[in-house]
């Protein structure tokens, strides 16, 4: 992790230079947050994505395609996640009752026992990430992130 007390190394320059610096910093924050979460979930024998999958599958059986979208992974990544959690005895695959071509992911009793301990880990790490921010600052930041996502979605649609 880089030293957060050091200056951002921002270059003087125009909008593009500042935007590049901000994008680099945003990526670094995401990596740092993931590192913090992965270290904390290691105590449970899980990765951050595995913990998130268990939380999302804890209420009811869910399709892998739904989890792929929620977790932001691809089909191969989802297969690996499910394989690893199944090997740990935390979930299993079962046939879909109405579509025999599909499967559903359901957590086991061991997975159910583990789930209540997982959301607080996300909450603590996120609380630390936003320590010192006001509610208004978080709302403004959220709005900016949504605009960034919309910008990227629009750019993805262009040829």
Characterize the structure shown:
The protein is mostly helical and 159 residues long. It has a domain at 15-125: Winged helix-like DNA-binding domain superfamily/Winged helix DNA-binding domain (Arc Repressor Mutant, subunit A), CATH 1.10.10. It is built from seven helices and two strands. The protein has helices spanning 15-42, 48-56, 64-71, 75-87, 109-114, 119-129, 135-157; strands spanning 91-95, 103-107. Strands 1-2 form a two-stranded antiparallel sheet. The longest helix is centred in the first third of the chain and has 28 residues, at 15-42.
Question: What's this, in brief?
Answer:
It contains seven helices and two strands, in the order H-H-H-H-E-E-H-H-H.
Which key features would you list for this structure?
159 residues; mainly alpha; Arc Repressor Mutant, subunit A; 62% helix
What fraction, in percent, of the residue positions are helical? 55-70%
CATH superfamily of one domain: Winged helix-like DNA-binding domain superfamily/Winged helix DNA-binding domain
Strand order in the sheet with the most strands: 1-2
- CATH topology-level name of one domain: Arc Repressor Mutant, subunit A
The string of secondary-structure elements, in order, is HHHHEEHHH
Nearest-angstrom radius of gyration?
19 Å
Q: Report the portion of residues in β strands.
A: 5-15%
Overall body shape = globular
- How many β-strand runs? 2
* CATH architecture descriptor of one domain: Orthogonal Bundle
Question: Which structural class should the secondary elements be placed in?
Answer: mainly alpha
> What value does the average pLDDT take?
91
The major sheet is characterized as: 2 strands, antiparallel
From the N-terminal CA to the C-terminal CA, the straight-line distance is 37 Å
What is the CATH class of one domain? Mainly Alpha
Number of continuous helical runs: 7
What are the segments in which pLDDT stays under 50 over at least 5 consecutive residues?
none
């Amino acid at each position: 992790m880089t030293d957060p007390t050091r200056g951002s190394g921002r270059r003087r320059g125009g909008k593009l230079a500042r935007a590049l610096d901000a994008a680099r910093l945003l990526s670094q924050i995401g990596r740092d947050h993931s590192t913090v979460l992965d270290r904390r979930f290691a105590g449970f024998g899980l990765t951050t994505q595995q913990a998130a999958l268990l939380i999302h599958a804890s209420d009811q059986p869910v399709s892998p395609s739904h989890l792929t979208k929620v977790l932001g992974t691809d089909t191969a990544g989802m297969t690996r996640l499910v394989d690893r959690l199944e090997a740990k005895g935390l979930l299993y695959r079962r046939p879909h009752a109405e579509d025999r071509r599909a499967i559903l992911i359901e957590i086991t009793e061991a997975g159910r026992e583990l789930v209540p301990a997982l959301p607080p880990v996300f909450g603590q790490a996120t609380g630390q990430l936003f320590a010192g921010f006001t509610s208004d600052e978080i709302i403004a930041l959220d709005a900016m992130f949504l605009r960034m996502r919309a910008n990227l979605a629009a750019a993805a649609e262009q040829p």
